[in-house]
């Protein structure tokens, strides 16, 4: 494939943008090669500036569950743009979207719109701290919750160690308030809550972890966290930025029948425009300014273009059979990829929950970041590049989920499986 225009743009971009990209994983660093510069996208297909077409399983990292440029979403955004793109004042659109979200997530008794997933989780953490009057939080290794300081912390060496910052610029004094545990390890969480009794404001997690591939909660894990939070007065924060409106209309919480005290959303609720939301129990949410003392704000929060895209998207997701069809396609792709992987000289393990999936270059099962980290990332990089050459766009990292959309056709799925067969055999 000729990618000379992408290459020229990347060279130019590196002069004015650090690493040539506005978000690090886009740079292809962990898979080798150079990023595609995108010209346009339609349905399941992405077109780069050189005119190459790719079947897209990134979907802008999750939001494009309807496929790209869905005509009804485009129409809604255009209609809104004509009426004014930002007012910094309340609108009927944001009330309507908040109402729709609350219907799907009844534990979000009240919610606030923000402009990214990072803002949603950062605000939820501050609110949980303000509400409980406690400073410490607990997160899981391999779960990503955006790049706010408190959340950019990886695991310490032992269960009881305090977090160390993953990035320079995060003060160690702040990072020490973030404890980390291994995903799916309830005993470790119990030990940490025992050791820090009365100090923990919140436990935050991805109810299905898509930022280390695709890791499902083991039976009892979510229930155990719920019980622990109830008995210790800890705020349970379900970060459904990725899983919300994807694993079911009501997200992972509907799918696993478990409820957080606070919930973070993003990606799909904005239909591809910059949106996030956080919400939960009224008693907690009422601590927010102007009703309460915990400050949180945003010039573009509730932006009318984003609200319109979100409303149009959620209405389409309510169509009967939407999630069943997504499941059928995802199961078909899973079966095809599994069969294709039999040609691979290396052990692989495909994990899928609904319309999220990941092929690990590791025999599996992968239940934690320690498991995921054993994957052969070089093999993944080679697989990724072969898939790209065969016209399939996967996320450029072993530690990211693939996303199915409603726009993927049977032909797309068969072409993907065929490409995978060739790529696995060539490894
Ligand atoms: N939480 C989760 C679970 C995410 O997957 C992400 C982004 N991938 C975020 C939070 C941060 O969202 P954003 O990139 O919109 O800031």
Automatic annotation (TrEMBL):
SUPFAM superfamilies, per database record: PLP-dependent transferases
Cofactor requirement? pyridoxal 5'-phosphate
Origin superkingdom: Bacteria
Q: Where in the cell is it found?
A: Cytoplasm
Catalytic activity as recorded in UniProt: (S)-4-amino-5-oxopentanoate = 5-aminolevulinate
Please give the pathway this protein is involved in. Answer: Porphyrin-containing compound metabolism; protoporphyrin-IX biosynthesis; 5-aminolevulinate from L-glutamyl-tRNA(Glu): step 2/2
InterPro entries per record: 4pyrrol_synth_GluAld_NH2Trfase, Aminotrans_3, Aminotrans_3_PPA_site, PyrdxlP-dep_Trfase, PyrdxlP-dep_Trfase_major, PyrdxlP-dep_Trfase_small
Keywords carried by this UniProt record: Cytoplasm, Isomerase, Porphyrin biosynthesis, Pyridoxal phosphate
Gene3D superfamilies in UniProt: Aspartate Aminotransferase, domain 1, Type I PLP-dependent aspartate aminotransferase-like (Major domain)
Q: Which Pfam families match?
A: Aminotran_3 (PF00202)
Query: What is a biological process (GO) this protein takes part in?
Result: protoporphyrinogen IX biosynthetic process
Root EC class: isomerase
NCBIfam families reported in the protein's UniProt record: hemL, PRK00062.1
Assembly and oligomerization: Homodimer.
Recorded hits in PANTHER family, A to Z, give:
GLUTAMATE-1-SEMIALDEHYDE 2,1-AMINOMUTASE, GLUTAMATE-1-SEMIALDEHYDE 2,1-AMINOMUTASE 1, CHLOROPLASTIC-RELATED
Name of the protein: Glutamate-1-semialdehyde 2,1-aminomutase
Organism whose genome encodes this protein: Syntrophotalea acetylenivorans
């Amino acid at each position: 494939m000729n990618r000379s225009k992408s290459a020229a743009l990347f060279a130019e971009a590196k002069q004015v943008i650090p690493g040539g990209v506005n978000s690090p994983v886009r740079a292809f660093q962990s898979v080798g090669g150079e990023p595609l510069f995108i010209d346009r996208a339609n349905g399941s297909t992405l077109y780069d500036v050189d005119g190459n077409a790719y079947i897209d399983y990134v979907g802008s990292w999750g939001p494009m569950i309807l496929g790209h440029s869905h005509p009804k979403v485009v129409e809604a955004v255009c209609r809104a743009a004509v009426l004014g793109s930002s007012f910094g004042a309340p609108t009927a659109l944001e009330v309507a979207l908040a109402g729709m979200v609350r219907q799907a997530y009844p534990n979000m008794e009240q919610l606030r719109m923000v402009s990214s997933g990072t803002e949603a989780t950062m605000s939820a953490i501050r609110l949980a701290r303000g509400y409980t009057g406690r400073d410490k939080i607990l997160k899981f290794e391999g779960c990503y919750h955006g790049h706010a300081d408190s959340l950019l912390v990886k695991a310490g060496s032992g269960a009881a160690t305090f977090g160390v910052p993953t990035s320079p610029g995060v003060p160690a004094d702040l990072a020490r308030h973030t404890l980390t545990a291994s995903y799916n390890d309830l005993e470790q969480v119990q030990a940490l809550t025992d050791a820090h009794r009365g100090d923990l404001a919140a436990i935050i997690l991805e109810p299905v972890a898509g930022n280390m591939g695709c890791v499902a909660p083991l039976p009892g894990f979510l229930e155990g966290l719920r019980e622990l939070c109830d008995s210790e007065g800890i705020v349970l924060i379900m970060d459904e930025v990725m899983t919300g409106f994807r694993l079911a209309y009501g997200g992972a919480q509907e799918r696993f029948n478990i409820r957080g005290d606070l919930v973070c959303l993003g990606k799909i609720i904005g239909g591809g425009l910059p949106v996030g939301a956080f919400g939960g129990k009224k008693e907690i949410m009422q601590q927010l300014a102007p009703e309460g003392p915990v400050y949180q704000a945003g010039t573009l929060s509730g932006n009318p273009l984003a609200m319109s895209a979100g409303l149009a998207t959620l209405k389409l997701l309510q169509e009967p059979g939407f999630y069943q069809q997504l499941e059928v396609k995802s199961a078909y792709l899973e079966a095809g990829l599994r069969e294709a992987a039999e040609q691979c000289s290396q052990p692989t393990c495909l994990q899928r929950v609904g319309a999220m999936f990941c092929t690990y270059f590791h025999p599996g099962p992968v239940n934690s970041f320690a498991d995921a980290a054993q994957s052969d990332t070089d093999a993944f990089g080679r697989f990724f590049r072969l898939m790209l050459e065969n016209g399939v766009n996967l996320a450029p990292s072993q530690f990211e989920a693939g996303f199915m959309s409603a726009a993927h056709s049977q032909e797309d799925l068969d072409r993907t499986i065929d490409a995978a067969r060739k790529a696995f055999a060539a490894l």
